[in-house]
Amino acid sequence: MPSTFHLLKPEDLKERLSQGKVQLVLDTRPVEIFAKGSLPGSLNLLWEDTCCKPQIKVAPVLHTPGYWGNLDEPALEKLAQTIGAFAGNEDEIVVVGSGHRDKGREGRIAWTLAYMGAQKVSLLDGAVEPLLDIAHGKHPGKQESKEAPSSHHGKFKLALDEKRRIKMPELKNLLQTQAQAINLVDTRSLPEFNGDSYDYQPRKGHIPGAILFPYDDMFSGKEKLSYIEKDQFLSKIAAVADKPTISYCEVGVRAALYAVLHEIYQGQVVRVYDGSIMEWGAHSELAMSGVQ
């Protein structure tokens, strides 16, 4: 099956921008960074704005945007309307970020778009900052700078692709009945996996049976701006690539980037548990391994 996702080298994006061939660019960097400079006409889209509030009793800090990863379907409906002003489901959407330091936010947006029904999502393989001198220097990040072409108004239709996402009840059932038939990939750091960090989490540790693919390992080079090559990625998953795969992290952001790269390199759709360890740990009846 052809992948929905594609990696776009900086030089290729620069050329396409100069030729006016890019229809929609979504910049996933934080608002204050986006405001300092962005690609002409790009829209700022934050992954936090696509999430719901916790539906169970948790510490107040977990109600802060960025601390809870479950998608909010009304927010996705609103996002589909915004995208529909510029592109349809079959049009290419380019997603850009700042590389490793963004903690996977560009991957989360790319995955969210595919879950919503986008059929062609290109992810910049590198940081966007070196491209900001295109044409006439840096461009202020203004969302209103891009006008929607009338031919695309309302053309993006929300069509949730559930094979890309898994919710807590289904994951719980799978682990109870078919644990040996799936790969459960934890994309956090080793200290997080072992439960040695982040006291704000309801419980620390990892979901039983998970294997570790650290977020840091998804990037190459000293500055970690670009993703690892296909052969490197495949060598890391060689022992587990023959099973259906589910990924998670803390709030489903790093896990989403893993899912994007896995699909590009392996040709297999990975289901993302967007609630991840934050939601799982908040349910005291669910098993966890490591420090709790």
Automatic annotation (TrEMBL):
GO molecular function, one term: thiosulfate-cyanide sulfurtransferase activity
Superkingdom of the source species: Bacteria
Keyword Repeat: yes
EC number: 2.8.1.1
Pfam families, per database record: Rhodanese (PF00581)
InterPro entries per the UniProt record, alphabetical: Rhodanese-like_dom, Rhodanese-like_dom_sf, Thiosulfate_sulfurtransferase
Keywords of the record: Repeat
Catalytic activity of the protein: thiosulfate + hydrogen cyanide = thiocyanate + sulfite + 2 H(+)
This protein's record includes keyword ATP-binding: no
Residue span, Rhodanese domain: 19-133, 178-289
Name of protein: thiosulfate sulfurtransferase
Species the sequence originates in: Candidatus Obscuribacter phosphatis
